[in-house]
Amino acid sequence: MVKNIKRYRKEISRIVAGVSAGYDVPGSFFEKFNYFEFLPVTYTLPGDYNLFAEGFCRFCAVKYTTDAGELDNNFMHLTNVSIQKYGEDYNETNGGKWTLKNLLLYLESTRGRAVTTRLVEQIDSILAHSLRSVQNLMVNDKHCFECYGYDIIVDQDLRPWLIEVNASPSLSATTGNDRIMKHSLINDILNIIIPDNFPE
Fold first, then answer.
1. What is the average per-residue pLDDT within 184-196?
2. How far apart, in whole angstroms, are the C-alpha atoms of residue 8 and residue 5?
């Protein structure tokens, strides 16, 4: 969780100003996956938000192919656990998920640090722009907060695409790592919204 809101907002502004419209990366990505990010938003100031740094990525158990005969193969195209858990190749230990940290390590080792850094910057830009686009529609009440769950898909050129923003992201856990990550998310949200001088 980003604790220093002003510093983070300044950094996001710098990133948004410097992110290019697009880029080409040779090669193809190994599987289709969705990237999920949690974003607690407080309403003390317009546009105040905190990024929870430990998102996760969901993968299809079947390697992606552009073969037209596979268009109806849900195990290849949909990363939802409710679908993947019925596939022969489903891994119950990790639930078809990686932590964001593991994904970034993998991408750095296979695609390079510069490309991976650019991906993270573009995802941060998506988060900032999406909140700015609805800023005037959000309730501006210092007594309120909300946690948004971002669904982002990353293509073979490592370009992120926003799929949807969930106002009530699921906090249920399907694996041990899932439980640890979501417990940490809740803990960080409480640390942000409960003032330091709150009575015990």
1. 81
2. 5
Q: Each residue of 122-143: pLDDT tens digit?
A: 988 898 888 888 877 777 777 7
Give the torsion sign (CA, 15, 51, 168, 181).
Answer: positive
Each residue of 146-156: pLDDT tens digit?
A: 888 888 888 88
- Torsion-angle region of residue 158: left (phi > 0), alpha (psi -120 to 50) or beta? left
Question: Cβ atoms within 10 A of the Cβ of 86, count?
Answer: 10
Q: Is the pLDDT of residue 49 over 90?
A: no
DSSP type of residue 146: E
3-state secondary structure 43-90: CCCCCCECCEEEEEEEECCCCCCCCHHHCCCHHHHCCCHHHHCCCCCC
Q: How far is CA 143 from CA 87, 88, 128, 137, in A?
A: 45, 48, 22, 17
pTM of the model: 0.69
